[in-house]
């Protein structure tokens, strides 16, 4: 069976939890397309173009990534009146993505069946760090059963995403649970180039990248019936 790619949107706190290795599950009310074990998810997150350096700024952790082969895109984007604004995650193209997740297991379960271990795997510890909750919220969370601390955190995070009272109202609802592993660093890539491209252009890109990175390698692949070349960091 062919493994496929799917875009998936994550909030900034989720992105930070994935980057730290603290998030390996996500629960969704529904998925736009059927997702199977072994499929790859590429993460859409909030971003902003940094036109002067052909870089994408990632809002979640305020980091940058350089895209020397996208000069034409940056030039065109600079003309848009929204060029100074941070862009919502839904507007992120695949070539901008930096996080790639391999789906380990897909299952459906009642939202109310969430366990403490699964709540931890959802990375909610990062949510409590990022949301600056009122003291009353922290007091309510901490006053309950310590064994369900992360479950209660997840309930508040769920309400923040889906609306007040959603956690209680959806207890009996079936949700899609995606368990995943982060494979971004396993083949961390610097840029992607759609082929064909002239030799002079390819050499210019390569020289520019070698000034900024060490131990690069080329990986060829196909996407949507087209040939692409990915320039990756070689593992040490």
Low-pLDDT residue spans: none
Helix share bin? 25-40%
Give the strand content: 25-35%
Q: What is the terminal separation in angstroms? A: 32 Å
Mean pLDDT: 82
Brief overview:
Helix content is about 30%, strand content about 30%. By secondary structure, the chain is an alpha+beta fold. The protein has a five-stranded mixed beta sheet. Strands 4-5-6 form a three-stranded antiparallel beta sheet, with no helix packed on it.
Structure description:
With 236 residues, the chain is α+β, with helices and mostly antiparallel strands. Helices cover 29% and strands 29% of the residues. It contains 8 helices and 11 strands. The chain has a 5-stranded mixed beta sheet with strand order 1-3-7-8-2. A 3-stranded antiparallel beta sheet has the order 4-5-6, with no helix packed on it. Strands 9-11-10 form a 3-stranded antiparallel beta sheet, with no helix packed on it. Helix 1 crosses helix 4 (124-130).
Defining key terms:
236 residues; alpha+beta; 5-stranded mixed β-sheet; 29% helix
Q: How would the blueprint of this fold be written?
A:
Elements: E1 5-9, H1 12-19, E2 25-28, E3 40-44, E4 47-50, E5 55-58, E6 63-66, H2 71-78, E7 100-110, H3 116-121, H4 124-130, H5 135-143, H6 149-162, H7 166-169, E8 174-182, E9 189-194, H8 199-210, E10 216-223, E11 226-233
Parallel strand pairs: 1-3
Antiparallel strand pairs: 2-8, 3-7, 4-5, 5-6, 7-8, 9-11, 10-11
Helix pairs in contact: 1-4, 4-6
């Amino acid at each position: 069976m062919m493994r496929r790619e799917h875009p998936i949107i994550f909030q900034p706190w989720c992105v930070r939890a994935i980057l730290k290795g603290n998030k390996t599950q996500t629960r969704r009310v529904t998925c736009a397309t059927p997702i199977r074990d072994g499929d790859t998810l590429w993460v859409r997150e909030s971003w902003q173009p940094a036109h002067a350096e052909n870089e994408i700024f990632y809002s979640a952790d305020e980091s940058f990534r350089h895209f020397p082969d996208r000069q034409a895109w940056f030039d065109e984007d600079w003309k848009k009146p929204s060029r100074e604004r941070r862009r919502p995650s839904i507007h992120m193209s695949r070539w901008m993505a930096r996080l790639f997740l391999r789906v380990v297991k897909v299952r459906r379960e009642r939202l109310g069946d969430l366990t403490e271990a699964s709540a931890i795997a959802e990375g909610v510890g990062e949510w409590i760090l990022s949301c600056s909750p009122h003291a009353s919220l922290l007091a309510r969370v901490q006053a309950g059963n310590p064994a369900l601390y992360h479950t209660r955190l997840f309930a508040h995070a769920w309400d923040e995403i889906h609306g007040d009272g959603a956690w209680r109202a959806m207890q009996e609802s079936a949700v899609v649970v995606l368990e995943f592993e982060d494979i971004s660093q396993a083949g961390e890539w610097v840029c992607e180039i759609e082929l064909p491209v002239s030799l002079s252009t390819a050499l210019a890109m390569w020289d520019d990248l070698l000034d900024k990175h060490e131990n690069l390698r080329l990986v060829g692949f196909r996407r949507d019936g087209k040939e692409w070349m990915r320039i990756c960091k070689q593992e040490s």
